[in-house]
């Protein structure tokens, strides 16, 4: 019963969500193939490395899941990562890590709130709003940093900073721990709170949500606060891992990976169906695929072709599964 | 057309003059027999009226001829040839053209573009030949004496003008059989006259026309034959001059109407008014509506499509802004800014558009049922799935909702069970006032009776119930009091135990107060 009504909704036969079977099998198949091809693949060092590296993606995709569940998208996540990175480092340089963190995360949440208000109150399409803030936040990151990286952060702040992005508590990497906590929280919110149920309802049918007395605009604002908030935290961790402020930290394919992971996991792009456990699977598929291909010395560009194919394949498989109306 | 009295004339013998012929047409949906062995034919140059109450099978018949549905059994002949109407394209190629109540024109394209949509006129270079398009569009419109510029965007046209353009479009694809579904529902008298004139000329040119309607009186001068459907069967085809208003109503409603199984509480046991409207208006939708519904009372608002019923209920529910007048609930004036406010004041709305506004079809039965009442299941900030499921299972059993379980997607239920699910959603709240908009639309006969029972139970439990319905049988079946509404105004009030169906029909179609 732990999953609640929503998590159980598609599992007529028990506790296994049938949507997770596809990506689950894909993950298993990958592990089998890569571990036979590379003896290093299943070592503890490698697995830990993959998890540490994929912690920010886990956090980003965790937030992105909310946006997709309402039938939207958050394109501004990558730019938020960049902006949080330079603001945190810049403020830390002159003041203190606490102030840096507050300023950086504050700015990130500010962009998230702006997204939410424009989507919820001004009722503009999420795609349009976050496309706009994608550009704006990316530009702000360049303006603030003057276009160059912010290196040479003061001691001891820089050590704390790195602890968040690459430290350990016992055997557990700190960013992985943070990711797990955020994912657990998101799962509880989605399956066990009214807000979570409202997210599914808005994604399932906005008209029905309105007619059921749900405050759709508030739900949307919160959704984009969660998505952008997760991006801010991910930006902070990524920045700590490279102990610097990088104006292009989120400009790579991390945004597309975040959306791709949610989709590979099996959350519907039309909203209303899916959840965080699926997203975790999606992230693991991407992370281990990239890692395995790296170990086999397959070049990055070929990897992109494969990840793209997986995204399309997973949606196709999912659409075959729900042929019924 | 010489037969006396109301003996049915035999359907025409198959001949070239018969454009459409249906034999023993049968169509079933899960748990509903929509058409049960219907015979029907249309001749060249004839306007044939198809009458019947909601749910009689008219729209199923049309959709089969249009190629939207496939018949389970029976024969369809077009111009004498046995045909299989696999899809819309097949039907169109055979010359069948349907004009639905909601139009199939692209609003952001011009009249000419719409007239040639999908069969654009091309230059030898493979580009659209705009000059020829507009010239031919003009010719087409002129043939029908339609005075609209071909360069006008459809979004700028009135409803009546759009209808004329639709007919022109149907003619453009050389329709042999034109089906009009309740085309005058939203037209003024003058506009309707113009439409009739056009239909007559089309018929004279040899097109066979099926005219679907509720109101025979209005179209009597236009049609030559009339077929009445009731509960999926044809009750007969008649020459129009054999019929008068009284026997049409009798044919549509059936002589053997079930006698009311309960004592109606038109007075006495009805409690204090819970809902009162005073002079409620919204421009263009309804005007000066005053009514009250008491606790324990079922008040039915009836009228034709477009009479303003849905708009009125949505306004009471806070989904539309009040134009003028006031709403009182329990004696207090209320101003709802949203459905949320209304729900908090104990109002529930079962919407007419069940699949659009009532249920999130991809969500499970359980989540739909508790959506408006989640607060009940929260403890220590979290929803309690055990408690929620317990409630859902109890409701499923109480209302007899046929489902494979609480986790089945709501969209997979049959119409009647979907409607029970929407009802259970509102029964899960603490609503005292129930607004039910066409509660049995698209619901099979068995489930209808169960829904009527649930509605009566609501009233018996002291709730106030306001039903909007265009289904005459339903109105007579459940109404303690009945208000006839026509073009946004109340035109008559009847007591459920003494209403004469003919007078009610008169009021909603002609506005003659009883």
Shape of chain B: globular
Number of helices of chain B: 17
Within the CATH hierarchy, at the fold level, what is the topology of the largest domain in chain B? Rossmann fold
* Major sheet attributes of chain A: 2 strands, antiparallel
Strand residues, percent of chain B: 25-35%
Largest interface: A-B, 33 and 43 residues
Structural summary, described in words:
The complex is a heterodimer of chains A (325) and B (514). Chain A has one domain: Orthogonal Bundle (ABC transporter involved in vitamin B12 uptake, BtuC), CATH 1.10.3470. Chain A is built from 14 helices and 2 strands. Chain A has helices at residues 4-8, 21-37, 44-69, 77-94, 97-120, 126-145, 157-166, 174-192, 194-204, 206-211, 216-241, 254-265, 276-295, 300-321; strands at residues 168-169, 172-173. A two-stranded antiparallel sheet of chain A has the order 1-2. In chain A, a hairpin with a 2-residue loop joins strand 1 (168-169) and strand 2. Chain A is globular and about 55 Å long. Chain B contains 17 helices and 22 strands. In chain B, the strands form 5 sheets. In chain B, strands 6-7-8-3-9-10 form a 6-stranded mixed beta sheet, sandwiched between helices. Chain B has a 6-stranded mixed beta sheet with strand order 16-19-20-13-21-22, with helices on both faces. Chain B is globular. At the A-B interface, helix 1, helix 8, helix 9 and helix 10 of A face helix 10, helix 11, helix 12, strand 18 and helix 13 of B.
Task: Produce the secondary structure layout.
The complex is a heterodimer of chains A (325) and B (514).
Chain A: H1 4-8, H2 21-37, H3 44-69, H4 77-94, H5 97-120, H6 126-145, H7 157-166, E1 168-169, E2 172-173, H8 174-192, H9 194-204, H10 206-211, H11 216-241, H12 254-265, H13 276-295, H14 300-321
Antiparallel strand pairs in A: 1-2
Helix pairs in contact in A: 2-13, 3-8, 3-11, 3-12, 3-13, 4-5, 4-6, 4-11, 5-6, 5-11, 7-11, 8-9, 9-11, 12-13, 12-14
Chain B: E1 18-29, E2 32-43, E3 47-52, H1 58-66, E4 73-78, E5 81-82, H2 88-93, E6 96-99, H3 111-115, H4 130-143, H5 159-172, E7 177-181, H6 189-204, E8 208-213, H7 216-219, E9 225-230, E10 233-239, H8 245-253, E11 273-282, E12 286-294, E13 298-302, H9 309-316, E14 324-329, E15 332-334, H10 339-344, E16 347-350, H11 354-358, H12 365-370, E17 378-379, E18 382-383, H13 385-399, H14 415-427, E19 433-437, H15 445-460, E20 464-469, H16 472-478, E21 481-486, E22 489-495, H17 501-510
Parallel strand pairs in B: 3-8, 3-9, 6-7, 7-8, 13-20, 13-21, 16-19, 19-20
Antiparallel strand pairs in B: 1-2, 1-4, 4-5, 9-10, 11-12, 11-14, 14-15, 17-18, 21-22
């Amino acid at each position: 019963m732990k999953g609640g009504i929503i998590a159980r909704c598609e599992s007529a036969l028990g506790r296994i969500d049938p949507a997770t079977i596809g990506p689950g099998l894909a993950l298993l198949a990958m592990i089998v193939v890569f571990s036979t091809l590379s003896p290093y693949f299943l070592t503890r060092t490698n697995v830990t490395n993959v998890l540490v590296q994929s912690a920010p993606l886990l956090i980003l995709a965790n937030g992105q899941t909310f946006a997709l569940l309402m039938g939207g998208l958050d394109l501004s996540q990558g730019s938020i990562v960049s902006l949080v990175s330079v603001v945190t480092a810049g403020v830390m340089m002159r003041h203190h890590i606490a102030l840096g963190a507050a300023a950086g995360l504050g700015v990130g949440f500010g962009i998230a709130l702006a997204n939410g208000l424009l989507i919820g109150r001004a009722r503009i399409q999420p795609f349009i709003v976050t496309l706009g803030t994608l550009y704006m936040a990316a530009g702000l990151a360049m303006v603030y940093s003057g276009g160059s990286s912010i290196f040479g952060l003061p001691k001891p702040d820089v050590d704390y900073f790195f602890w968040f992005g690459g430290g350990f508590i016992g055997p557990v990497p700190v960013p992985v721990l943070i990711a797990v906590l955020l994912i657990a929280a998101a799962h509880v919110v989605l399956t066990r709170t009214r807000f979570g149920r409202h997210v599914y309802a808005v994604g399932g049918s906005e008209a029905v949500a309105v007619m059921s007395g749900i405050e759709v605009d508030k739900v949307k604002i919160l959704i984009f606060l969660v998505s952008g908030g997760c991006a801010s935290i991910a930006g902070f961790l990524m920045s700590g891992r490279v102990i610097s402020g990088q104006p292009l930290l989120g400009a790579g394919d991390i945004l597309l990976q975040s959306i791709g992971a949610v989709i590979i996991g099996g959350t519907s792009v039309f909203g209303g169906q899916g959840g965080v456990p699926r997203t975790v699977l999606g992230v693991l598929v991407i992370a281990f695929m990239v890692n395995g291909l790296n170990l086999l010395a397959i070049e990055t560009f070929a990897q992109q072709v494969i990840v793209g194919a997986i995204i399309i394949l997973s949606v196709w498989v999912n659409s075959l599964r729900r042929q019924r109306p | 057309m010489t037969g006396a009295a109301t003996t049915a004339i035999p359907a025409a013998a198959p001949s070239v003059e018969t454009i459409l012929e249906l034999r023993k047409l049968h169509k079933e949906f899960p748990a509903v027999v929509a058409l049960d062995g219907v015979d029907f034919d249309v001749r060249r140059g004839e306007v044939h009226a198809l009458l019947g109450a909601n749910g009689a099978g008219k729209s199923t018949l049309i959709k089969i001829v249009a190629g939207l549905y496939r018949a389970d059994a029976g024969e369809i002949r077009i111009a004498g040839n046995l045909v299989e109407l696999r899809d819309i394209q097949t039907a169109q190629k055979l010359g069948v053209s349907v004009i639905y109540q909601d139009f199939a024109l692209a609003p952001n394209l011009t009249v000419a573009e719409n007239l040639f949509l999908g069969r654009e006129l091309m230059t030898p270079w493979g580009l659209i030949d705009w000059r020829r398009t507009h010239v031919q569009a003009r010719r087409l419109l002129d043939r029908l004496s339609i005075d609209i510029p071909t360069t006008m965007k459809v979004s700028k046209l009135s409803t009546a003008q759009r209808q004329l353009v639709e007919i022109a479009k149907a003619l453009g694809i050389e329709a042999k059989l034109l089906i009009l579904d309740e085309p005058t529902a939203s037209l003024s008298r003058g506009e309707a006259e113009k439409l009739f004139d056009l239909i007559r000329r089309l018929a004279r040119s040899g097109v066979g026309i099926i005219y679907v309607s509720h109101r025979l009186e209005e179209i009597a001068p236009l049609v030559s034959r009339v077929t009445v459907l009731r509960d999926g069967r044809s009750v007969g085809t008649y020459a129009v001059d054999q019929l008068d208003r009284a026997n049409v109503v009798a044919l549509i409603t059936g002589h053997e109407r079930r006698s009311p199984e309960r004592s109606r509480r038109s007075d006495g046991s009805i409690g204090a008014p819970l809902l009162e409207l005073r002079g409620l208006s919204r421009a263009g939708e309804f005007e000066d509506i005053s009514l009250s519904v008491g606790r324990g009372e079922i008040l039915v608002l009836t009228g034709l499509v477009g009479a303003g019923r849905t708009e009125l209920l949505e306004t009471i529910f806070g989904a539309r802004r009040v134009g003028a007048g006031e709403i009182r609930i329990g004696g207090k004036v209320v101003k709802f800014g949203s459905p949320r406010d209304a729900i908090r004041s104990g109002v529930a709305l079962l919407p007419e558009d069940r699949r659009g506004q009532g249920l999130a079809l991809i969500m499970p039965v359980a989540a739909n049922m508790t959506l408006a009442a989640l607060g009940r299941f929260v403890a220590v900030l979290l929803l309690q799935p055990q408690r929620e499921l317990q409630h859902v299972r109890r409701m499923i059993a109480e209302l007899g909702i046929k489902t494979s379980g609480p986790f089945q997607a709501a969209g997979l239920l049959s119409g009647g069970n979907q409607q029970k699910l929407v009802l259970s959603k509102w029964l899960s709240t603490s609503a005292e006032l129930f607004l039910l908009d066409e509660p049995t639309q698209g619901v099979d006969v068995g489930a209808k009776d169960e829904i009527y029972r649930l509605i009566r139970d609501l009233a018996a439990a002291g709730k106030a119930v306001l039903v909007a319905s265009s289904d005459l049988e339903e109105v007579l079946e459940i109404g303690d009091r009945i208000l006839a509404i026509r073009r946004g105004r109340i035109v008559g009030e009847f007591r459920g135990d003494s209403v004469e169906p003919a007078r009610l029909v008169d009021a909603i179609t002609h506005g003659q107060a009883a």
